[in-house]
Amino acid sequence: MARVVIEQLVDDLDGGKAAETRNFSYRGVHYAIDLAAKNAKALDKVMAPYLEVARRVPRKRAASQRSASKASSGAPDPRLVRAWAKAQGLQVTDRGRVSADIMNQYREAEKNDRH
After folding, report:
1. Which end of the chain is more exposed for a tag (fewer CB within 10 A), N or C?
2. Angle of helix 78-87 relative to helix 100-114, nearest 10 degrees?
3. CATH superfamily of 1-59
4. Distance CA 21, CA 31 (A)
């Protein structure tokens, strides 16, 4: 048995065949819209005067994305480790990599706290 799957991009404005997906942000919310070539040109025309005077701002990863990526790696948050180490009277740098020894002590203390 054969199967053919056809994926077609549909213009979100008029339901016709879309040529591309446009991504943009407005008032802190990120959007994506699929548009036919004529609608993409219309969007460009409307946005042009604003884009000419606006300044570009590099996108930063959201705090939730940063914490999610740290959590998925399995490594404890270095800020928590530093705070714990200082509370234990251990010497730890304020910046940079936390030593493997301190990380191991932190993990061991966490494990003991759970039991």
Report:
1. N
2. 80
3. Lsr2, dimerisation domain (3.30.60.230)
4. 10
Residue 71 has pLDDT above 60, yes or no: no
53 neighbors 59 (Cβ within 8 angstroms): no
Dihedral over Cα of 66, 72, 76, 80: its sign: positive
Amino acid at residue number 50: Y
Q: State residue 16 phi and psi, 5-degree precision.
A: -75, -170
**Domain covering 63-114 in this structure, CATH number:** 4.10.320
Where do the CATH 3.30.60.230 domains begin and end in the chain?
Answer: 1-59
Tens digits of residue pLDDT in 11-44: 999 999 999 999 988 888 999 999 999 999 999 9
